[in-house]
């Protein structure tokens, strides 16, 4: 090939790959197979390596795929994503077996699978093409992560079948392998980004990337375990359903075994637990499922669990290590917590080097001293815990822990409240300041990417940040003057800070770090009051009138907004350009703006499901009938609300009619 031809070929490859990107990512109608696509990419990459002078800045080797979406679109699942009831011992498994046999009136065989500790997804294929992938969300409505899913190599974009079904929806689990998780955390730490607590969080964080190219770099795996919906005849049992998934080219949960009875299933659990540490990924138990679908149907479900399956959990993993020291940490609200610094130990693939001891009560209960050998456990995403001090291994050199009389961060004399010890200095205490800012910048709050606690510490120590609002007065030249802060890092942080100025009400409220106001409470406040000013001026009565708010929470909220300092800080944030978005009521959906009351029992859904459906369709599910009620849905044995509605002349419909409305 002459040089001219090479250039022509490279231009053609760029154009062709871009065309396939569009077909694949945007139109969902790929014309070529994955390997043919990879081949084109490989050729282009090779040529670019050889002839860098012809390589283009907009080459698809640098900019892959579809435009990055601004937010995830909500999608309704094919069927609610249920959870599994857990049992912890053989007796629990045997009980499950007895109930199953009694209800179906026959012996049942089981299919046993590892309980994969990842995040659940739903995949939908239409005429063989992957058309949608969605995350759990609230179980009814999830987030559309199709673009992200398409970057996972193990998820076929096209089913392997000559005549694929018109539609198939499957459930599975997205997992990150332990080795990849450790490497990712290493990279994150090197780049000054937050690390993930465990492989599951890492998988979740990777899926939640709007920029799906990041997901693509994260080495994820997908294992499928259930067919939810099939446009053709369903196989008669889970064992066959799994075979069918495999035939289609979907990866199924490994180590699946069919068991004749519960004794075999219990043995399976025991064997699997032994193999647990040899696996590449985290599992936290065995799922025992009734194999036959006819029996599954007969057994049905409870509100949130199927009655045909259980999760038979493993014992939490424990290891023995030594407490090297017990130090005191100052929390965001000034509470001092004892923290055990441990000789690093690997507990199920994750290195543990610290464990919180919560408070003095816990220290006393465990009787733990500095220098003790202790057992530490890690269960699921729970922070490592010390479960026991091995007193028989003491040498006499261990040191008892005492809470200091002064705050270790600022020296202010501490105050005691029950078992809690607190530094009363507020944001004047550097320890509290750091925690408050880290919290404000965290993912669930205003989400400033790259604002790790190390960065906050550095900025605080240099006197660049003395309060939360100072985050917005950081200057480029000040950052560039810090050691290790090059242009790229600085500009990334400044960009992230700028982005965080536009924030939703619930995130902002959560970010303020009001005592007793977690994410859920912040969302509730945002929903009920709609605007910051209304929350600030809410009195205790307004607050306790809300169902989930008791006097203690109301007191925390009014106390926070009663502090002049806090109000000044909010004002400063506003002056520095933070815009807290008011919450508008969802105006879209089939029940937009409608207030709906349910009475009597519903047949096809639980009350909370019904409530969620109403909300996802833009309506509001109210408890009592009032003059503002738009619609009353009457189920079986309706109560006095029906009478109320009749009296008030409010429209009444049956459950059937309600289902028709929501489609
Ligand atoms: S079947 C109807 N099988 O566990 C319930 N779930 O606690 C269907 N999970 O949301 C669940 N491995 O994310 C099933 N082999 C397996 C599983 C599994 C992990 C997860 C799944 C589900 C959660 C339920």
Give an overview in words.
With 663 residues, the chain is of the alpha+beta class. It has five domains: 3-62, Helix Hairpins (Orthogonal Bundle), CATH 1.10.287; 74-313, DNA ligase/mRNA capping enzyme (D-amino Acid Aminotransferase, Chain A, domain 1); 318-393, Nucleic acid-binding proteins (OB fold (Dihydrolipoamide Acetyltransferase, E2P), Beta Barrel); 505-581, DNA polymerase, domain 1 (Orthogonal Bundle), CATH 1.10.150.20; 595-662, 3-Layer(aba) Sandwich (Rossmann fold). It contains 24 helices and 24 strands. Strands 12, 13, 14, 15, 16, 17 and 18 form a seven-stranded antiparallel β-sheet that branches. Strands 2-11-10-3-9 form a five-stranded mixed β-sheet. A four-stranded antiparallel β-sheet has the order 5-4-7-8. It binds 2-(butylsulfanyl)adenosine.
Instruction: Describe the sheet with the most strands.
Output: 7 strands, antiparallel
In the CATH hierarchy, what is the architecture of the largest domain at level 2?
2-Layer Sandwich
The total strand number stands at 24
The Rg value, from CA coordinates, equals 28 Å
List keywords for this structure.
5 domains; 37% helix; five-stranded mixed sheet; 21% strand; OB fold (Dihydrolipoamide Acetyltransferase, E2P); seven-stranded antiparallel sheet; Helix Hairpins; 24 helices; D-amino Acid Aminotransferase, Chain A, domain 1; binds 2-(butylsulfanyl)adenosine; alpha+beta; 663 residues
